[in-house]
Structure formats: structure tokens, C-alpha cells
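Lab notebook, bench 4. Still working through the backlog of constructs that have no structural model yet. Next entry is a single chain of 135 residues. Request: give me the C-alpha cells for it.
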Amino acid sequence: MGEEIERSQFSEADFARFGTALEKETALLRSWFANGELSSRQATGGFELEAWLVDRQAQPSANNVAYLEALNNPLVVPELARFNVELNGTPQTLHGDALRKMQTELQATWQTCSEAAQSLNNDLIMIGILPTVRD
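Model written out:
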């Protein structure tokens, strides 16, 4: 993750390599589960939120390197393209007020992230596919 995908056309060999890698990773996970190697501690949850950096015309802003430097938060990392970032939450044990803690953390992180974007004449938006994006 975090690397640019150089192309959008893939060969049968590419799909075969991907399938082989996926099968290998699935087999490894299956063996960990069967051998009791996965964590048995309390259920834990968190959040991961992908966001877009956009300019004042709502066009993608390929500015995540400068943005992340200005923000300086290890829980906010680059995503697949230079105009995306990922906000991560601190893992919480899922009991009591865990959801409230996640909400509070997300609100504070989002506020800080939005301010950092605005300092670079950008905005940060939560959306899956940006309607203004062009090839």
C-alpha cells in the first residue's frame, strides 16, 4: 500500500500471479487459525478512513507529501495516489465507551487534518470516488 500503480491494463499472467499470491496468503492465514497462532485477547477495533486532498476547485491535489510533512502525525499516512491520505485510529478494546473514544479521536484527528490541508490551500474530503476526478 502507498505505492502508485503504474498501469491500468493487466495480462493473464498478472492475474495468475495475483491469484497465486492470494492463495498463498490465504493458506498462511488458515494455518495460523488452525494452529492457534492468532491472538486470543479481547476484541479490539479501530478505524481507517481514506480521504482526498482537493484544491479550491474541488480538483484532486497531488500534494500529500507536503501535506503529511506539515501535519506530522504518524497515524495519517499516504494512500495509493498522491492526492489521497489515510487516517488511522488508535486500537480500542471493544467494551464500555470504546465507540465514543473512537468518535472523539476521529473528530479531533479530522479537525487537525482539515486545518493542515487549509494551510496549504487545500481541503480534505471524505468520499470514495471523487466526482471531479479525471483520467
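Notes after review: The chain is about 40% helix and 15% strand. The mean pLDDT is 91. Flag for follow-up if needed.
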